[in-house]
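User: I've been trying to design a sequence by hand for this structure and keep getting stuck. Would you show me what you'd pick, starting by listing the structure so we're on the same page?

Assistant: Good idea, let's start from the same input. This is the structure you sent:
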């Protein structure tokens, strides 16, 4: 070569010494001179948001005189055209993204993969992995298994409890604790057939499971029975306590049979004969069956008899009830005490007691307290 060639700086070459085909290829790849050449993919009529590829020279310039730096490198970035490349450097990046910075970061199994193409954290490719997560399926199966085991455990526990209850009930209802002795107290006029029926019901049943409610109902159906209490005693005894009604007065019905009435006006018993132990309410009353409730006038007469003081009760021969419902009392001396309508009997009885204490009943023919004041008729 000539001296002119020797004077050229080393590392430089003349563009004319390169073939046209090479220059065209370099021009297409890097553009002309030092100005970066941007090659953008053609726009698609169907999609306005299309990623573009930018080719930049990172160091050195291609000039007609040659390459200033020894190496020429290209950085290929995948960017979104919605980002402004010419904008200033963005602010501080998210610390979470900084931790994931690198060529490829996948995180845990449940996360998506991040591919960082360049040092700029604005240019990130997210790779969506639609493959099923095997660890999630394992956790789901384990959870379902734990739930099944929990249900089975509760079912077993319920079965044990039910079985224990059945066993206990079977033992308590066994003949080992059967009632062998039944004792009745307070029954004087109670029907013997009813007593035997209750005895048969209680005897042989377990002291823990015997139906005392049914036995009590049977006894209360008897007109003489006012109240019942049944108790069982371990291991094989039962006690039946009966409270019977107290007869107070009696009256004759239209069928000429006597009805015995207690203080509440309930008909205790119907008799063909006439009783002598109780005071009679003279007059004719309704023909009621045993267990029925008589009129209020008969209930008032019975309560009046119960309220008589001990000093007057032996002097009373009978009571009477007029068709108009007026109540009167006849003493053994022949004195008639008129109470009128069966109302305010307590105050009227007080007037009668005070008068009889002051005056001999044998001298009195009539004592009238029906108006609330005592009026006396002397014999």
């Amino acid at each position: 070569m000539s001296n002119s060639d020797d004077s050229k700086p080393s590392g430089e070459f003349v563009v004319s010494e390169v073939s046209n085909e090479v220059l065209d290829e370099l021009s297409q790849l890097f553009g002309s001179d030092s100005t970066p050449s941007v090659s953008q993919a053609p726009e698609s009529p169907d999609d306005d948001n299309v990623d573009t590829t930018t080719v930049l020279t990172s160091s050195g310039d291609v000039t007609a005189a040659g390459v200033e730096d020894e190496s020429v490198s290209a950085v290929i970035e995948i960017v979104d055209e919605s980002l402004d490349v010419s904008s200033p450097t963005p602010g501080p990046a998210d610390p979470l993204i900084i931790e994931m910075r690198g060529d490829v970061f996948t995180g845990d199994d449940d996360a998506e993969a991040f591919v960082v193409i360049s040092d700029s954290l604005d240019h990130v490719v997210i790779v969506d992995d639609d493959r099923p997560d095997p660890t999630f399926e394992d956790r789901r199966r384990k959870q379902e298994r734990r739930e099944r085991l929990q249900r089975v455990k509760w079912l077993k526990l319920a079965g044990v409890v039910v079985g224990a209850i059945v066993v206990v009930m079977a033992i308590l209802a066994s003949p080992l604790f059967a009632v062998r002795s039944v004792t009745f107290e307070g029954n004087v006029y109670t029907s013997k057939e009813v007593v035997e029926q209750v005895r048969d019901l209680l005897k042989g049943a377990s002291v823990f499971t015997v139906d005392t409610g049914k036995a009590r109902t049977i006894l209360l159906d008897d007109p003489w029975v006012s109240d019942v209490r049944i108790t069982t005693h371990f291991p094989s005894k039962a006690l039946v306590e009966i409270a019977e009604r107290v007869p107070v007065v009696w009256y004759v019905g239209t069928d000429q049979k006597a009805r015995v009435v207690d203080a509440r006006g309930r008909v205790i018993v119907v008799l063909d004969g006439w009783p002598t132990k109780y005071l009679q309410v003279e007059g004719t009353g309704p023909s009621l069956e045993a267990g029925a409730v008589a009129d209020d006038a008969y209930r008032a007469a019975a309560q009046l008899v119960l309220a008589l003081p001990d000093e007057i009760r032996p002097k009373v021969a009978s009571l009477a009830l007029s068709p108009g419902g007026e109540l009167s009392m006849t003493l053994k001396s022949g004195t008639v005490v008129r109470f009128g309508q069966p109302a305010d009997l307590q105050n009227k009885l007080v007037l009668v007691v005070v008068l009889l204490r002051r005056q001999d009943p044998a001298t009195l023919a009539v004592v009238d307290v029906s108006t609330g004041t005592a009026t006396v008729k002397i014999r």
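That's my pick for every position. To get oriented when you compare it with your attempt: The helical segments are 3-6, 20-30, 95-99, 134-172, 192-202, 212-220, 296-307, 345-358. Confidence is low (pLDDT under 50) at residues 1-13, 33-78, 97-114.
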